[in-house]
Amino acid sequence: MVDATANDIVEDDARARSNVVRLVAAQALTGANAAVIFATGSIIGAQLAPQMSLATVPLSMYVLGLAAGTLPTGWIARAFGRRVAFMVGTGCGALTGVLGAVAILYGSFLLFCVATFIGGLYAAVSQSYRFAAADGASAAYRPKAVSWVMAGGVFAGVLGPQLVQWTMDVWQPYLFAFSYVVQAVIALIAMAVLWGVDAPKPKPAERAGGRPLLEIVRQPRFIAAALCGAIAYPMMNLVMTSAPLAMQMCGLSVGDSNFGLQWHIVAMYAPSFVTGSLIIKFGAPRVVAAGLILEALGAGIGLTGVTAPHFWATLFVIGVGWNLAFVGASALVLETHQPNERTKVQAVNDFIIFGLMALGSFASGQLLADYGWATVNLAVFPPVLLGLIVLAITGWSKIRKRAALAATELSDRGV
Question: Which residues cross the membrane (predicted)?
């Protein structure tokens, strides 16, 4: 007799694997777009802004767009399907490149901030790639699906900074202007890739029902997942957005900055080839904890010197830590919702993460300008400690709950 359930699982995972291939490619292309903004945003900001303390505002606008786009992305995906959300996102990516180039050509700081904000909207959509990879997949395959899609960022780490290096001087004296034109083209290529993703519009039954959102987000496991994601990403972003300008302030070259950012992005995504397996073997909470500890270690390296190798090592170690913490936290989120609750829960999770990241991002430029690179690194330690404490409390509560259930079962049996 054929096991229909087993056959369904095989078919669902085969569909998920097919989607993963496209989502990996899209992650690489979208990540390259983000790399252009992070590699150039604070430098262009310093050139166009009326004062140095506003230099990182374009990057903060990117993060603000990222936060602002999370809930609308979830609504679009829930109402019309993920593919429509993907098309809207890549359209924003193309518009970012066009507006960014025009802003540089005309020396408009305000228009450049608008461009990076729209780039953040594109990034908000791209954050759903990791969750889209898990749609319909078996519980055993989901962590690997999320992890593999994140691995696409490795190619972004190579492509993005190199793209800046190859194109930044094409339209002299307008540094980086042509980089943004190429960015628009890359977004259109990503649009073509994502069009083939098998993500049908949700059926009415899938859009209805589910538990109240408040009930879901009050779960200790969701709280731990969202909080750790909201620590891992903003702390990494704080260091990453400050590093290019800090390196310039220390007399290092744009080439040094691009090299550091390139390997930072590789470090952010290369562990994804094994992170899913680590989550399956050790559990998501332990992987998240390891990631947070590595982020603190990277910040510690940043306190030991301001040579190029110090900056590179800081960015690399923090990148690895971010991967473990963020992918692990994403896997935890998948354990907290039912299939018909996924888009709203995932959108709320990302809104919490990127909303907090946006608030911190606006302070990063002032923090660097007023207090220096060392203070940027010191700011990483308190949130990391908080995340580790919450993980420990959540794990302890789970152990107590299991012990109580075991004791109840023994009591029911009369043992």
Answer: 23-47, 59-77, 84-103, 109-125, 145-164, 176-197, 222-241, 261-280, 287-306, 312-335, 347-365, 371-393
The structure's pTM equals 0.73
At residue 58's C-alpha, the angle toward residues 57 and 60, to 5°, is 60
Q: Which pair of structure tokens corresponds to residue 205?
A: 């039954």
* Chain segment 359-408, per-residue pLDDT in tens: 776 666 678 877 889 999 999 999 999 999 999 988 776 666 665 655 56
pLDDT in tens, 211-231: 888 888 888 889 999 999 999
Segments in 81-128 forming alpha helices (H): 82-106, 109-126
Judge contact between 260 and 312, C-beta under 8 A.
Answer: yes
- Note the pLDDT tens digit of each residue in 9-48: 556 567 778 888 899 899 889 888 888 888 888 889 989 9
**Of 123, 126, 122, 104, nearest to 113 (Cα)?**
104
Nearest in space to 387 (alpha carbons), one of 276, 285, 316, 241: 285
Of the options 1.20.272.10, 1.20.1250.20, 3.30.450.150, 1.20.1290.10, the CATH number for the domain spanning 1-202: 1.20.1250.20
Q: How far apart are the C-alpha atoms of 93 and 83, rounded to whole Å?
A: 15
Q: CA nearest 35: which of 205, 170, 152, 208?
A: 152
Q: Where in the chain is the domain with CATH 1.20.1250.20?
A: 1-202, 209-414
